[in-house]
What we know:
- Helix 4 (121-133) crosses helix 6 and helix 5 (138-157) packs parallel to helix 7 (195-204).
- The radius of gyration is 22 Å and the shape is elongated.
- It has a five-stranded antiparallel beta sheet. A two-stranded antiparallel sheet has the order 5-6.
- The longest helix is centred in the C-terminal third of the chain and has 24 residues, at 277-300.
- It is an alpha+beta fold.
- The chain has twelve helices and nine strands.
- The protein folds into two domains: 7-113, CATH 2.40.50.140; 121-299, Hypothetical protein af1432.
Amino acid sequence: MSEFKTVQELKQLDPDKAVPFRSIFILRRKTLKTAKNGNPFLSVELGDAAGSFTANCFGDSAIFAALEHVDEGAIIRVSGKTEYYQDRFSPRLQAAEELSADDAETQSILSQLVEVPPESPEELWAHVEDAIAAIEHPQLRDTVQRVMDDMGDRFRTGTAAISMHHAYRHGLLEHTTHMARAARALLPLYPQVDADLAIAGILLHDIGKLEEYEGDFAAKVSRIGTLHGHVVLGFRTARKAALQSKLNEDLTERLEHIILSHQGEKEWGAAAMAATPEAVFVSMIDNLDAKMGMVQRVLRNAPEGEPFSEYLAGLQTRVLLTPPDKR
């Protein structure tokens, strides 16, 4: 057994005891804040493949000095003591050291650090290729294929979010694949929805996230992502491919509308409200898979014996972790 504790192992330790530990984590997020007394402190999120936690590092501590100039996405070795604050795991960190990705110690546990979906990326990508092939309209299919030919490598590895849903390596591929599977199962119930447009819209709805996010081990919003956002970036990518594929004006406009409206609500980032059968359909499936993705992730990363998850902002509640009693 490794001397380095995982997030799950730390959360399974006795919450009533301050247990010393050593671990290797990815610094997912780091925010400089100011306490009520005016002193600075760092709020950091550390994580591995099975979970994450936040901790505070106060300005007069050695841990603050150790992490002050470490970038998000760095791999760090930390030591500290387990601690809880308001029933939330928030350990007291005592020391930290940045490690290289090529470090032997890092290489030995790298698979434990990077979260990935349960399904292999090869299997997920095969479903994407199958969905593209199922688009019958030749120019619409060619539009999607052009985008994937250009961005497919990044699409296969990219994250779907910073923290809300499918926020890990291959997460965008998983999210898009699950949406395509759900759509193909539901389309027979809604004959008013054009299947070609719906599938094309699903495959391209989040393509702008490949420009919105950057980073290898922890995603952060890029400069262009901050200035434009993934909805506009995706609209631009789809329009370029549609023009190159000579997609007619009506289908181009409808495909663009799916991308512009898929967020569902303007306060959630939609540029327009869904106003076609296909846009409504894609928006609802996107919302379904985003929320179920949160549920699936918290269930597979749940510490053994815990009845409820921690609070999930995306669901505005905690999730019951125990299966139904069907005796």
